[in-house]
User: Fold this.
Amino acid sequence: MSRPRKNPVEAPKKSAKETAPISKIRGFKDVLPEEYKYWNLVFKKATELAKVYSFRRIDLPILENQALFDRAGGKTSELVSEELCSFCAKGGEKVGIRPDVLPSLVRSFVEHGVLQPGQISKSFWLGPVLSYDSSQGSRPRQYNQASFDFLGDFGHSADAQLILIAYNFFKELQLDVEVQLNCVGCPECRGQYLKELNEAFKERGRKSKLCNDCKKHLLKNPLRIFDCHEESCSDLANELPPVIDHLCDACHKHFERILEFMDNLSIPYSLNTKLFFVRGYDFWQRVVYEIMPVGETRRHLSLASGGNYPELVSDLGGKSNAACGIAMDLERTISRIRSHNIAVDCGEKVDVFIAQLSENAKQKCMTLFEELRKAGFKVREHFISDSLKGQLDEAERIKAKFSLILGQKEMMDNTILLRDMESGVQETIDIRKLAAELDRRLNII
Ligand SMILES: [Zn+2]
Ligand SMILES: [Zn+2]
Assistant:
């Protein structure tokens, strides 16, 4: 006996609020398929240069213990206070999303025992970082960096090679750039320089010209004045003794050697004695560098920056005392490429596009697609469209050299139409001889 059927329970109606579209978070960005060619271009260029200069790829987690960023940021850096996005994970531990790759990179090398005396590593990293620093203009909070780093004991040439790689990266993307450099000293000469600065601030009336922030930082880190955007601080910074006049012999020699490399490599550079802080950090020693678009003076639009960070290595438990790196800001690079209307070639050459004219033809075309793909042809399709025009438009868009068109008639005759996409000339080909015919024509061109 069958049981009486119950009325199906009606799903509760959703309110307008429940079905309203949800927007992305403010300050974040979607990269849509039609924009992706720019990202492909810069990712490809960075990866190509890493291979050429033998930097080995490394990937790192996006989340780290907050303690790592607290320690990496030091006491005076803006990193933790202004840029870091941190929260309590489900287990209760405090974690942060990397605002820059360096803390994770050094953490990883220390954890895996790479940063021992005598060891050396050239690493390449490419990925997103998240910075809540609101002073970075229109850049989205999540953006991509490409970072090239030497970790371990290396010679003078490492800094020059990093600058060269970044310079080549931008030049080969058709962007005109120049390098700004500063030698910021080491623990040996920095102490003497800080004493000189303190003396300079004792001069009457000087302190009163400082903005409130710089006044606050004066005791802990008077170098902050060189990073201040306030006009009165910037003017005052011009009157202060430059660090370059207070270097120890080792720093002086190191800087001179780098400049020699730059001259030999014909890389345009200028000295910027106010350059102490880059990427929100103040732990740099010896040499700091920044790559700027030619004619651009607004530092928050720099395209790449880096320097030597031995203190970060020792602060994070590494035994080696040498490390230097440079990171390109890929979003700013792309924004520059777009605003200068630099032509971007999607790069890929497509041999043949397959178009179908019926459901039966579609089945046959899918098999043909696999045969041609396995035979080594660069083959593409747009089977979701049933209109020939829609399919050929796609073939045009991806710049296919030939299109193959299969309809009922061709299926009956065991033939296929071969269309030269440049001339528009169509010929009927015996489908059994198709691979040989494509080979012949592609090799002629
Ligand atoms: Zn020194
Ligand atoms: Zn200031």
